[in-house]
Amino acid sequence: MRIDFYVLQSSSVEERLHFAVRLVEKAWLQNCSAVVLTADGTTADALDALLWRFKPESFIPHSRTDATAPVFIGTDAGLLPLRELLINLGPSLPAEVERFQRLAEIVIQTPEVLEPTRFRYGRYREMGYQVNTHKLAT
């Protein structure tokens, strides 16, 4: 499994969601299925709305309720459908993380995001995974 941490220099939740949508779009264009784990229903709703309006000229098939959709948005780390890519916007380590081929963590500069992602970074390394870090300018 490939694990990538994308470290944004921003503290903006909106920028984090926009980056997640760009990753979803990239996956979709490469015929890669994805699941996005969010912390709560409010974040899932915001991501869902953003996917609808991100690029009006294109459509990325996604759903919060249909587990067969190419892109699934979920809030329960224990009940995620199998996809090639997991984008983790949630606060915890996803259950059965080894089921996915790729995992992306999107980090912003807020304590409520930094602390749990630092923990997960360490856990992934303890589990024997190579973790790649990409520091991105905003």
Structural class, by secondary structure, is alpha/beta
**Count of extended strands:** 7
CATH architecture: 3-Layer(aba) Sandwich
Topology-level CATH name: Rossmann fold
Low-confidence stretches: none
Helix and strand element order: EHEHEEEEHE
**Number of separate domains:** 1
For the biggest sheet, the summary is: 7 strands, parallel
Supply the CATH superfamily name.
Answer: DNA polymerase III subunit chi
Helix content: 25-40%
| Oligomeric grouping of the chains | single chain
Topology:
Blueprint (H helix, E strand, L loop, with lengths): L1 E7 L4 H17 L4 E4 L3 H13 L8 E2 L7 E4 L10 E4 L13 E6 L3 H16 L4 E6 L2
Parallel strand pairs: 1-6, 1-7, 2-4, 2-5, 3-4, 5-6
